[in-house]
Amino acid sequence: MTQPASPPRDRTDKVPPTAEPPVWRTLAAHADVRTLSLLGVLAALVVIGGITKPDEFLDTRNLQLVLTQGSVIGVVTVGMTFVITSGGIDLSVGAIVALSSVWATTVATQEYGFAGILFTAVLVGLGCGLVNGLLIAYGGMVPFIATLAMLASARGLALQITDGKTQIVSVEGVLKLGERDAYVLGIPPLVLVFAVVTVIGWLILNRTTFGRRTVAVGGNAEAARLAGIDVRRQRLYLYLLSGLCCGIAAFLLIILSGSGQNTNGNLYELDAIAAAIIGGTLLTGGRGTITGSVLGVLIFTTITNIFALNNLQSDVQQIAKGAIIVAAVLVQRRTASTT
Amino acid sequence: MAPEPPLLTMSGITKSFPGVRALDGVDLDVQAGEVHCLLGQNGAGKSTLIKVLAGAHQPDGGTISWRGEPVVLRSPIAAMRLGIATIYQELDLVEGLSVAENVHLGHEPTAAGFVVRGKAAKKSTAALLKRLGHAEIDPGRLVGDLSAAQQQIVSMARALSHDVRLIVMDEPSAALDPDEVDNLFRIVGDVTADGVAVVYISHRLEEIRRIGDRVTVLKDGRAVAGGLPAKSTPTREVVALMTGRNVEYVFPRRPAAPAPAEPVMRVQGLARAGEFASFDLDLRPGEIVGLAGLVGSGRSEILETIYGARKPSVGQVTVEGRPLRPGSVRAAVRAGLGLAPEERKAQALLMLESVTRNVSVSSMSRFSRGGWMDRGAERRAALAATRELSLRPDNPAVPVRTLSGGNQQKAVLARWLLRGCKVLLLDEPTRGVDVGARAELYAVIRRLADEGLAVLLVSSEVPEVLGLADRVLVLREGRVVHTAPARELDEHRVLDLVMEGTS
Question: For residue B315, which of B275, B262, B261 has the smallest C-alpha distance?
Answer without folding.
Answer: B275
